[in-house]
Design brief:
With 434 residues, the protein is mainly alpha-helical. It contains 14 helices and 13 strands. It has a 3-stranded antiparallel beta sheet. A two-stranded antiparallel ribbon has the order 4-5. Strands 6-7 form a two-stranded antiparallel sheet. Strand 11 and strand 12 form a beta hairpin.
């Protein structure tokens, strides 16, 4: 593994130092195509060859660790890449088949997968001391990808074996025991371990990245939860309703601190289409747009005087950091130290196309772009300004949301699932993207 990381680092350096056209010579569409193409390579060229799963990061000191949630994002990225012709549909189906085969043989915990696995041994790898079993939220991110891929594989004119693979994905989805993770209560719980059982005791409540978990749990044809579970758990946390104004922008849902990190507006919406999604309280596209614009305005105001922040450099979310390691960078916290995570603004491009493209061009022109897309973090006060790391959970949303902005592909596929429509109806959502 050390040899692999050394070779990978050398490849990064070679690409970074090589010649490349500046963004001024590229149209928006050409530049986005380049970014999407390169970012998807994280889930193809850098995927673990035996399992097909996405490696957690390119500089992982723990070894050859693969991630379930990040691989779920990667499943959608592979679909997008095949549809774009970055590689053949046959290759896309083969890669999806390799991931599915691993998911079928991996240890599961009442249908849920663990957060991490060691790809070499194919055993569960502990995310933290007591987190060595089922992770329902990471499982939801994977299932979101599998359902989108299932619908893609069922389209006409697909390669041989697509229908059988879609059925295998369907079986994996139906095996997740969502209702078991309520513990017989009115809430979903995040973790269960065969060694520690419910010791983590982490109740899933919002508003954050976990909305997709309740949507899928309500949509399950085999282990569904009730609407009451969603209403009395997810919607009753201290940081669900907001309604305050930030820079003149009203935020209906989310944390008081500027709505929280921007991945709250990305992870659940890679497949779940926020356009026309309403629940009587807010329109979710408009909510996510407001969240993104609040971050944009915060960077322009730059209350801490951090170097470089402004209309061309904005977006704060969890990523690596030169000072704190991996942290949230959320505005209003000490971790907001001027570090911009490219995934934040770029994954918001469906909500803020003009503002996000400004960041794309700025970072592209400031050597923050490498063989697998934009590097994980950028801070003009640091030396070097670019942290040349890659994380699956940051690269995946970029690739998928760029594709959703360009074509709506993953939104269309996921929302075509009849189970999802039934689940949204059950939870009181209205969806009308016409």
């Amino acid at each position: 593994m050390k040899k692999l990381l050394i070779l990978t680092s050398l490849a990064f350096a070679m690409v970074s130092c090589g010649t490349r056209s500046r963004s001024a010579h590229l149209s928006d569409d050409a530049l986005l195509d380049t970014v999407e193409r390169y970012t998807i390579r994280y889930f193809t060229d850098f995927a673990d060859p035996s399992t097909g799963m996405a490696r957690e990061r390119n500089n992982d000191s723990n070894g050859n660790i693969v991630t379930v949630g990040g691989s779920g994002f990667g499943v959608m990225a592979i679909v997008a890449g095949a549809e774009r012709g970055y590689f053949s549909k046959e290759e896309g189906v083969e890669r999806l088949g390799r991931i599915t085969s691993f998911l079928e043989r991996a240890e599961r915990f009442h249908g849920a997968w663990a957060h991490w696995y060691d790809a070499d041994s194919e055993k569960t790898f502990s995310f933290s001391e007591f987190d060595d079993g089922g992770d329902l939220v990471e499982t939801a991110f994977m299932v979101q990808g599998l359902l989108a891929a299932r619908q893609w594989l069922r389209r006409g004119g697909m390669p041989e074996g697509s229908a059988a693979l879609s059925d295998r994905m369907d079986a994996l989805w139906k095996d997740v025991e969502w209702s078991w993770y309520t513990r017989g209560t009115d809430s979903l719980y995040w973790h269960w371990s065969k060694n520690w059982e419910w010791k983590m005791n982490h109740r899933i409540s919002g508003y954050d990245e976990t909305l997709i978990t309740y949507v899928l749990a309500a949509s399950s044809p085999t282990w569904p939860i009730s609407r009451e579970c969603y209403e009395t758990s997810y919607k009753t946390s201290d940081y669900y309703y907001n309604g305050k104004e930030y820079f003149g922008i009203t935020l209906p849902l989310g944390m008081e601190l500027y709505g929280g990190p921007l991945f709250f507006s990305h992870y659940s919406y890679l497949g779940l289409d926020p356009r026309g999604l309403e629940d009587g309280y807010c329109n979710y596209f408009e909510r996510n747009k407001a969240h993104s614009l609040i971050h944009y305005e915060y960077a322009k105001a730059n209350p801490r005087g951090n170097k470089g922040l402004g209309e061309n450099l904005w977006g704060f979310t969890s990523s690596d950091d030169y000072q704190f390691g991996y942290t949230s960078h959320n505005p209003g916290t000490q971790e907001e130290n001027g570090t911009v995570s490219p995934t934040a603004a770029i994954s918001s491009i469906p909500y803020t196309p003009k503002e996000s493209m400004q960041v794309v061009r700025y970072l592209y022109d400031h050597d923050a772009f490498g063989p697998y897309g934009f590097y994980d973090a950028y801070n003009e006060a640091a030396s070097p300004a670019v942290l040349d790391h890659y994380l699956a959970i940051d690269q995946g949303p970029e690739a998928v949301m760029i594709e959703n902005y360009r074509s709506g592909l993953l939104w269309e596929l996921f929302m075509s699932c009849p189970e999802v429509k039934a689940g949204l109806d059950k939870l009181g959502f209205n969806y009308n993207n016409q």
